[in-house]
Protein 1
Amino acid sequence: MTAFFAAWRQELGSARKYSVAVRNYVMAKTACISGVRATELCLVRLGDLHWNNGHWGRFLVRGKGARGSGPREREAFMFAEGRELLWWYIEEVRGLFPDDALDPYAPLFPSERLPAALGAEVAVAPPVCADTFRRSLRAASLAHLKGTVTVLFPHLLRHACATHNYESGMPLWDVQVLLGHTWPTTTVGYLASAKADPERASLESSRRAVRRLSGET
């Protein structure tokens, strides 16, 4: 995934529609970092970015509730990499779209076109649709992804986020919070490809216990 995103970013400067190409890239990488669903990303507004929340900043998403309970809001996590990525996008690219990039109700990831019926009177562009995001991700994966998986779609980025963080040592409960799952059994289903290492987990647990007993933080 690291090589895939590096290759994709390298080609952005030569894209025919630079702002659109960067938007698609930032959406995909944000999904991979934060585990946010495609439909949730499309609904994020500029005013939903809270740079001072948590350690690196967070953003508000509106997603589906458990068992058909309807939409619900939750905070998604930027982490250090996502904060740097989104800050670059806001500072350098978001203002290239034809709407008011200072309006807090404007979408973070807008469509490149304003509604034809209203034209220049529209201050806020509609958000990019999930199908557009899926098509851009598919095209990028066919061009730059190497390995056994040749085509990506947004939900695979969500799985990649869960697996990467779990294998890096994030507890299952924290992965559950990251993905916004109500039930831990749902989260476990995302980790089918994770490589567990019980010996390493046991050693790390022992080291933490020793540090606590010795008064270290």
Protein 2
Amino acid sequence: MTASDEQPGSAAHVLALVANGSATSRADLVRELGLAASTVSARVQDLVEAGLLTESGEGASRGGRRPRLLRIADRGAVALAADLGSHHVRTGAVGLTGPVFDVEEDAADLTSGPEPALDALAERLGALAERQRAAGRTVRGVGVGFPGPVDADGGRIIAPSRMPGWHLFALRDRLADRLGLPVLLDNDANMLALGEHRATHPALRHLVVVKAGRGIGSGVISDGRLYRGARGSAGDISHVRLEAAGERPCSCGNIGCLETVASGAALAAALRAQGIAADSTTDILRLVENGEPHATTLVRQAGRDIGAVLAVVVNFFNPEAVLLGGALSGAQPLVAAVRGMLYERCLPMATSELLINAATGGPDAGLLGAGHAALRGVAAGSRGKER
């Protein structure tokens, strides 16, 4: 399964219009999409055959015969979703409507290499699939967010920092072979952006969603759809060179990257160098909440550094909102510092109506984005039955 967006008039777009209530019949879809009735009927039939839509009952007449009503299949498609971190894996099931369910989170070490991680992920997702089938649901696919650069079309990991052995690993195809299901793979920040957009800001068309945790990344929503760029690296702010980072070596091979001073890994290392115990973003948040001055100062400076990079993005892209997600977004000094830098460095026209907030989709936003991306992929390219 390759990455798929809601292209205008596509089956995935049809599915989205029915899911959000914009269309309840084929006639509504013809009016919304401006397509021929025969084209709309073909799209609907594909989705009905895939178990994503049902068509039954009758709606109000507008002068002709009463239309049959389209609905999301109540017990139809679900997707499995996995949100991977460098030291954890979070999994859940996602339907076309409603929240993520059957969520589990476990410790996992991606830095130990791809094969052990693949074994653990396949085991967790296989058990999740069996639970969904036992409940009478049909599993249509899998969406996975990976914490590093991803060739979404090729389904491979591309040179992730701090993760030896992963370069060019065909995670999508290897996982699909193990599970017997189509798999959609993308960067975790992109999945977070999709989830935040769908869950909390569906009316906005232009968003930048930052994931600030052990590493730093961002996803871009442009004109209502995920924007990946020419090769899939759009939104990768982690390795933008920053003057404040000086000559610090980065795991990517360059020096002075944003990640070297503003990521959770960098902040934890800086605290340990001062004799303060901090091994994770959870430790950093605890220290900030307890008012530890060194931690608060470092987090505030990280926010200014992230804000300095985002100011260029905001001036160039002119989004409606900048949302800060990931574990570090729970530190209010970081969010406030990002906001201050954007107001300080961006054009007033770009920030006069700009929403700058911590993301509110919660820890399952990445799962929601991954699951819906997988279901859209099924809508766009699958007419077969569950394997």
Protein 3
Amino acid sequence: MGLAFYKPIFEKFENRGILPAHSSAGLAGICTGITQALTLVTPLEMIKVRQQTEMAVRQPHYQRKYHGLINTASIIVQQEGFTALYSGLLATVARQSWGLLVKFSAYTELKALCQKMSKDPNEPLRPWQHMFSGGMANVLVGVLNSPPDVVKTRMQDSGRSYTSTWDCLRTMARQEGLTSFFRGSWLRIIRIAPGGAIQFACYEQILHWLNRN
């Protein structure tokens, strides 16, 4: 997990006074997001969007073009080139790094708040407190990370008319208004908030077990 890998690295600089206080979690999120976007997330998101947008087509006798992960990837590469798998890379990098910056920073601060509100500040937090912190952190992600997610999806749609990420941003803002960048935010919150609660609760339990053993 990116938080476990990157955060200790930045904490060393934070403890030496090189980095601002409470910045290690956010910087770990940025590095994790960039790593994810450059490796698997962008191509997989591209394939997912192509399959989802094709299913929206409602034409008589329409024959599906994409069938499964490998088939979709091979068709995209054959017809559009390998780089097509990385369409929307800039927007994906922005979405992943900004989203994880918000997620890791919010979780760290919410967890610290729960610790301060505890009757015994030295007592370890309970699993439900980790779940609360993780769930609420993902609620913030659902709202604040909506714009790059919407732009990323628009850029990966096969029927897009945008020439670049910047062109997509300008066109959406001019033709659809700023609220268009937040479409689907509630659905995103419903989807990712429970996942954040489970993810961080499991993370803390596993980390506790590893430190103890």
Protein 4
Amino acid sequence: MALPSGSPPDPAPVRPAPTPHRLRRAGLIAGIILVSVNLRPAITSLGPLLPRIRADLGLSGTGAGLLTMLPVLCLGAFAALGPTLRHRFGEDRVLLGCLPVLLVGILLRVPAPTALLYAGTVVIGGAIAVANVVLPSLIKREFPDRVPLMMATYTMALTFGGAAAAGAVIPLERVAGTDWRGSLGLLAVPVAVGALAWLPYGRRRVRGGGGVRRAAVAPLLRDRLAWLVTAFVGLEALLAYVTFGWLPAICVDRGLGEEAAGYMMSAITFLQAAGSMAVPFFVGRGGRGQRGFCVAVSLGTAAGLTGVVLAPMWTLWFWALVLGLVGGAAFSLALTLIGLRAGDGDSAAGLSSMSQGIGYALAAAGPFGMGVLHQMTGGWGVPLAVLVALCVLMAVIGLGAGRDATLSLASRPST
């Protein structure tokens, strides 16, 4: 329709420019993702390269087992440093410090001496352990109204980074024309990128950081809810590391080829990233409690493990994929419970340190215990029964860890 003579045209709608607050939050989310994606590759890249490492260095089975178990032990042993460093420097600066330490650990594994391979692995485990503790606290502080979504984003980046490294480390070795040392050394590049991305946030001092309590874990050791969350996190980690360590061997024993078993493990790991994103859509249903979801992921894990060991071979891929999706959801849920059950940032740091420190120590025993049971019984039936029993125990514990309640260090004496 023609406009009347002299009538100005309607102005085009103008969208308001993003506010500085929104831009800062978007940049912070991007920084968290770039940091998180670097917190697993240095660990998951060892598995595919382990046969070459053993052949090159002449490692015994015990030496190779120690190399794979060291990162998990360090995740538990160094978690206690998280609250102390957070008290002194704040989450932002601690994260910025973790990345150069991680970089040093990666580069230590490149030179020839075998001792440096183990030393670098310990340094890597320590850096990741501290970052694992302070990230939930930072998310609780910066996104108190978006804890499930941000924890799911964090765990998705974590899982995706680990899966991508495990799948790419061999092709990278071929493309770069290097050996396993050079392939491990290439992991320093994304860590440097993550450090640069976090630099604007790591240089700041967050107001109020001096109010963080120094003894953030001790009061929680007398709290029933804290122990329930710790037990849930520990059992989830134990089941996850058993799956990572023994699923390919179980599938090969059932008649699947080694190459196919490797592809299956990669598919499971990538599916965990998708499973972690299901958490925000379920944890808020029926109030703030997560009891039903805790039970669902626990029994889903039991169903996936049972299917992989006992179901007909033609269904093996289906049950493995179930394990991937449910495992990712369980991992994300375990970390989300830390943020939801903590009433403030101090409590989140303390609960994160307690649950991951004790939890990963428990998880380190899982693959070893599975191997002992398999060797003693000569089959997978007894180990499966034990794992299913642990899944049921995790469901029962989840009824308590997932209830609508919070704990806070603000009302507790610092002892």
